[in-house]
Amino acid sequence: MHFSHSKGETKMRKWTYLVALALSVTFLSGCGSSATTSNIDSETDSSEVQEGITWVGTEDAVVQLGDVFDLLEGVQAIDAQDGPLMVTIADDDYFSYNYVSSYTITYEATNSRSETSTELRTIQVVKGVNVENGAFSLGKAYWKFDRPGGNGTFSVINEEAVISITDAGTEAWAVQLYQTGLQFTAGKTYEMSFKAKSAYGRSVSAGFENVSNNYSMMVPGYQAVKLTSDWTTYSVMTTPDADVGFVKAVVYLGQNLEIDAEATLANPIDITIDDIRVKEVTMAPIGFAPVFANAGPVTVSSKEQFDALPPVTAEDYSGNDISSSIISLGDVPNMVNAQTGMMVSYRVTDGSGNFGYINRRVSFVLARENPYNLINDDFVNGFQGWTKDVNQTNGTGAAEFTAETVTDEVIVNITNGSTDNWHIQLWQGNVQLTQGHVYRTIVRIKASVERNLTIEISNPAASYAKMATDLVRLTTDYQEFVIEFVAQTNASAKFSLLMGGQGNNVITIDSFTNAEISPEEATKIDLREYDPYEAINGDFKYGFYGWSKEATNGSIVNFNEDKTNEQVVLDIVTPTLTDWHAQLSQDGKTFTTGVTYKILIEAYANVATALAVEASNNNGATVLVKETINITTTLTPFEVEFTPSETFTLGKIALLLGSSEVALITLTTFTIVMVPA
Asked: What is the pTM (predicted TM-score) of this model?
C-alpha cells in the first residue's frame, strides 16, 4: 500500500494493512495453533513482543525531506495464535515527508481475543540536500522570486507555483525562482527535479549556483526544455569538484528559447511548477562508468550549426557501444538575443545498471564587425546583444525596459532606483580588448530629469576591475559622452550603464559604441607608461582620466576638473555617515608581498574635514591599510604607508569621501610609490 499525504491535509487518519493469507498459513504451520508469547519465532532482531503479539518493521527511521515514505510498508503485527493481524495507525502525528520534523507514529493491532497491542515509532524527516517547501504546501515560504533582467509575478494556487512572465529579458537568468542554503560535497552527484507545464508552450531551465563564488553557475549552461499543457518532468545534474557550503537551487524563467520572448504586459505567459526536489544520485563505481565521445563544449551561432555536429556516442566499461541508449535533455534555440551558454545533458545506463551523464556547454555568439565592437550598438534590433539587469538580491531596484522600433531607441523606466548605481544596469559582455591598444567609447543618452549615471568598462575575469569609467550628468536633452582609454590588460570586457541609486526616472539611450583608435587620434587620455602598482594620472594632468568617481547611497558629490592648474575639485554636497558611499579610486593594481608602498596625497579644502585613505584588494575584500587624514585650508602633503603580507594583483587605492563635511576639496596629487628596501 502506498502512503502519502494529500497536500494541505492535517487530519489524523487511521491506516489498515492486511497481511497476505499465504504468509498467515506459513506462520501457523511453523508455530502451531497453541502458540504463546514465549514460543513466538524470534529470528527478527527488530521484533517487539506485547501481550502475545510480536511487532516487526517498526524500527525508528530517518527520512530525507521529500522522499516518499509509506508508514505501513514492512510493518507487521503477528499474534502467536492468530498469525498476522490487521495493523492500523491510531495516530500519525500529522506525518508528512514534505515537512522537516520528528513524528511519533502510534500503531495498533487487535487479536481474536480482543487483546489490543500498541507500538510507538519515531520517524525523523530531515532536510538533507533537499529544498524546503518544494511541494508549495506552505505557499511561497522559503522561495525567492527575482527579476534581475525581466518581469513577472509569482503566486501559489492550489499548492502549485504559478509564474506569469510579462518580460523574459534577453537571457534565462532574467527571471528566477530560487532557494539558497543547500550544501554539496565534492565528488557527489546531485539532481534537481520538478514538474512543469505551460499552455503557451514556453520553456524552462534550472541549475545550481555557488553563492560564495559570486553566484557562479555549477552547470555549464542553461538546459532549456520546451513545455506543453501537460506536466513535463525536468531534471538537471551536477557533480561539484569541491565542497560548496552555500548552494543556490534556481529555476530560470527568463528567455531560454525564442518563444519566451513573446511575453509582454499585453501577452503574459504563464508557467506552472510543482514538486521541486534536490537529491543525491548514485553513480557507477569508479572504472565502470560509461564513456562519452563528441560531447565537448562547442561554440555556434545557430541551431543549424549545432545540429550539423557529429553525434554524441557512448561505450560501457567493456567498450561496447551503448549509444542507442543515450537520452538527451535540453533544447538548443534557433537564435539568441544575447551571447549566452546553453547546455545539453546526455545520460545513459548500461546493461549492468551503471549510470553516467555529461553536461555539454553550447556557447551561442552573435556576429560582431570587430571583436572590440559592441553588438547592435545603435539599438536597431532592440535589445539584441544587450542584457537588462535589475538586482533585487542586494537591492530593491525595479525597472521596465522597452525598445522603440520606430526611433531605434531603448527606454528604461526606473520605478525604484534602489541604493546603488549597479543595482540597475544595461550591459554587454565578451567585448575583446587588447593590452596597450587605445579605445574610444561613445554613449548618446538623455533622461527625464537631471541625474547622474556611470559609464563603466570592467574586466569580469579580474573581479570586475575597472578598465575605464566616468560619472556623467544627464539632462533632458541628448548628450554624447566620450571615454578614451588604454587597455592595461587583455580582457573579455563588460560595457555597462549603471543606472541605479538616482530615484525614479526614465532614461533613453540612442547609441552605445566602442571603437579602436590610434594614439594620435586620442585627445583625452594619458599615454604615459606606468608600473603595475602605480596610480595612472596621479598628478591630474589629464583631469579624472584613469580614476573612478563614485557617489551612491544618497551621497552627492560634484567631481570637477581644473586641467589648467592640473588639479581636481571634489564638491561634497551631501555626505552620508559611511565613508565608502562616495570615493575617488583606481583598482587593478599589483602589490607584492614584503614590498613597502607609500600613498602620497596633496590636498586642501575651504573648510577643515577628515577623509579616509585606503588600500585594499579585490574591491575592498582585504583592507591593507586605512588611515584618516585631516584636510585643512592649507595645501598639505599626506603619506600613508603599507607592506602587504602576500602578493595581490587586484589592488585598489581609494580616497573615501562619504563621511566628509560639506566642503570643496582640491586635490593636486594622488600617487603611490615603492619605498626602497
From this structure: 0.64
Q: Is the pLDDT of residue 21 over 70?
A: no
Write down the pLDDT at residue 138: 92
Helix, strand, coil share (%) of the chain residues, nearest 5:
5, 50, 45
Give the residue numbers spanning the domain of 448. Answer: 387-517
Q: How far apart are CA 302 and CA 418, in angstroms?
A: 37
Do residues 239 and 171 share a domain?
A: yes
Number of structural domains in the chain: 5
CA distance 473 to 475: 7
pLDDT tens across 197-230, in order? 999 999 999 999 999 998 999 999 999 999 999 9
Q: What percent of the chain has pLDDT over 70?
A: 92
105/162 same-domain check: no
Dist CA 335 CA 257 (whole Å): 8
Cell of 519: 594614439
Torsion of CA 367, 368, 370, 376, to 10 degrees: 170
495-550: pLDDT as tens digits: 999 999 999 999 999 999 999 999 999 988 999 999 999 999 999 999 999 999 99
**513 and 558 both lie in a single domain:** no
Spatial contact of 398 and 417, defined as CB atoms under 8 Å apart: no
B/e letters for 208-232, b = 16+ CB within 10 Å, e = fewer, are: bbbbeeeeebbbbbbbbbebeeeee
Residue ranges of alpha helices (H) inside 318-381 are none
Among 619, 671, 591, 625, which residue's Cα sits nearest to residue 465?
619
Q: Which three cell numbers stand for residue 49?
A: 513482543
Mean pLDDT across the chain = 90
Name the amino acid, one letter, at 91.
D
